[in-house]
Amino acid sequence: MGLEEELRAESAEVLGRLIRFDTVNPPGDERACQEWLADYLADAGLEVELHAAEPERPNLVARLRGGDGPTLGYLSHVDTVLADREDWSADPWGGEIRDGFLYGRGAIDMKSQTAAEAVALAALARAGYRPEGELKLISVVDEETGGALGAQWLTEQRPDAARVDYLLNEGGGAVMPYGERRLLGVCVAEKGTFRFRVRTSGRAAHASIPGLAENALLKLAPVIGALGAAQPGFDLTEASEALLAGLGEDPADPAGSLERVAAVAPALAPILDAALRVTFAPTIVSAGSKINVIPARAELRVDCRVPPGMGVDVARARLAEVLDGHAGEVDVEFTEEVVGNRSPVASPLMDAIADWVGEQGDETVPVVLPAFTDCRWFRAAFPDCVAYGFFPQREQTLYETWPLMHAKDERIDLRDLGYATRFFHELPGRLLS
Fold first, then answer.
1. How does DSSP classify residue 363?
2. Domain 192-235+277-334 bears CATH identifier 3.40.800.10
3. β partners of residue 366
4. Mean pLDDT of the residues in the chain
5. 287 and which of 48, 195, 264, 295 could share a cystine (Cβ 3.0–4.6 Å)?
6. C-alpha span between 27 and 30 (Å, rounded)
7. Nearest to 144 by CA among 185, 182, 106
């Protein structure tokens, strides 16, 4: 049995154990899972600490110390979203292996990465490896509800335990077939979240005589339509320009680039589009409470994502552009303003990842994640930290894994689990030598 097959077998066993801990958040209750992982890593020879904002929800930090040099951190979270057993063909907390796939809540998001990182470091420790620097495995709680008890708390309240120079987390790595090329995205940046409310007002009346009323709900209709069809201008960053260049496109022509990408890989086009501009997603509408009363007030809630490093001024400008002709009829209130952050595209960590992937016959390309990961907290706490999202997968494509996250029958190809574990096992020798 070769190294990858050995790592695959052990990581499958560890992943199965992790999935069998029900860590649905809320409430989380990750302690039993974290304690099992702590024992596994300690048995392999790592130094392990638990740091908790709340007793039943500890964060884990495991160390493999070496000489003087940078610290490489492997980050993951062990809390998950809910799963409804009735929707699944397997027990969501059973860790069943079927037809080469391991099923369970967290198999993609993201106990698989926890298992791969843990097995990689355990194997290195058992073999007597000592880095020119330090290796840390950081397993946190509470990511699925924002990280207040997890990565945010750990980086702000226990910075010495959390501090790293390089960090790998979720957010990239699944292969993106693109014509004849096979691209693995390295997530270097995350968009910011700028959610807002749109309110309209009118005049109530009995629903049997609509002409006596001014229906506030109807005033929202053109706003919803405009937001749903929104194609605001592009707001490119270093990361999105590097993404276009990596696809062989011209960053100076994002519109043309999108058309050409859609022709080659239609499934990639909406993902690329979201990386290049502000997006608006109407999600919740509320108005009247009685069927026979025309509402005098109506409200729409919108999830807005803004390219990394850009603030609410950009969100407002693009919103005004999209609502051209309707902006004067509505009241807009931003309720959440979180600026997305990023790491440099060029770094020794990027070089090490690209070299390893290239030796496997594939390519890397920087990507921008439209959603949130715990990398945000590490970049904010440690400005010099280079934090990327990367969990390499060759069998399951990006277009297959995204629909499985937070969905029924979440599962991972065991070949990908072994492949990723080998990457995490071999990276320290490249980066910390």
1. E
2. no
3. 186
4. 96
5. 295
6. 9
7. 106
